[in-house]
Write a structure and sequence with these properties.
The chain has about 160 residues and is mainly alpha-helical. The chain has helices spanning about 1-35, 45-65, 80-115, 130-160. It is elongated.
Length: about 160
């Protein structure tokens, strides 16, 4: 489980660099458009691709740090053991969604690779590397979900503050 945790931490760290590039490209585009009246054909599309890259790499990390949004009117007042029980009871929804998503994104990524898919734009960048990254990122989410599932079982069995 530590390997899964550290893999998702590293994926999130890699994704952070995408944010820096997005800021640089966006700033460059503002200067090119405003100061030189010469907008680029690729900056907006590159930033969209980088944002997608960042978001998919952050998914597993978000599961790791329990950062997804939930209605915690009652949940936040539960003990750690009860929260773990609720998580376990509802985990089938998470796993069903992630497995279906992994299946379809794998098919989409494979298809994009086989046809060497490119964007329909003036810049015409390849899309297949990004589409092949999507199932890898969802696999990291699935693995982190399994690690969280095991931790929840451990908390239910051993009680408050149980750690592996």
């Amino acid at each position: 489980m530590r390997f899964i945790d550290s893999s998702n931490q590293w994926a999130a760290r890699i994704g952070i660099f995408a944010i820096l590039v997005i800021m640089l490209v966006g700033s460059m585009e503002v200067v090119a458009r405003g100061a030189f009246n010469s907008p680029t054909h690729w900056a907006w599309e590159l930033n969209q691709m980088l944002l997608c890259f960042y978001i998919v790499l952050a998914g597993g990390y978000t599961v790791l740090v329990d950062g997804h949004v939930r209605m915690d009117i009652f949940y936040g007042k539960f003990s750690a053991r009860v929260r773990a029980l609720v998580n376990l009871a509802l985990s089938f929804l998470f796993f069903a969604f992630v497995v279906i998503l992994l299946w379809y994104l794998s098919k989409m990524g494979w298809y994009a690779l086989t046809i060497r898919e490119h964007a329909f734009s003036v810049w015409h960048p390849p899309l297949y590397p990004l589409k092949m990254l999507l199932p890898v990122a969802v696999l990291l989410v699935l693995l982190q979900g399994i690690a969280t599932f095991i931790r929840n079982i451990n908390t239910v069995i051993k009680g408050e503050g149980a750690a592996l």
